[in-house]
Model the fold of this input.
Amino acid sequence: MAYKNIHIGSLLKERVEESNLDMTRITRFFKYSEEEILNQFEKNDIYCEDLLKWSKLLEYDFFRIYTQHLILHAPQRNVNYNKVPAKKSSLPQFRKNIYTKEIIEFILEKINKGKMSKNEVMEQYNIPKTTLYKWISKHEKSLIKKNDPPST
Done:
């Protein structure tokens, strides 16, 4: 999945097809016409409230797709260059980025295929060196386990 350019409508349509969900159920749930539902499948973006409803109906967290985009393409800044005291926010503050299995595999694939160096990954995606090397180490261990012959 390419997290850079997200076309949410096509992802919704794909999930509806996978779920074999009847259009009548969808139109009743949203209180939209079939034409309005089909129109949403063509859209690049939709209202958050509708996306929340789609997530509930299709039992899939579509917001996570946007979260993955933020992790890869707009990582949180962890250096305060101006040394200005941080303003208190009423919004929740998150201590760490959450890297999903898909993100880790995406990053490691770029390195393994030679598309990016480790340094390029660390710079572009703002991934700490220790985190990246832990992923590489764990990935190598899981490959070794998969390739080990069964013990007798």
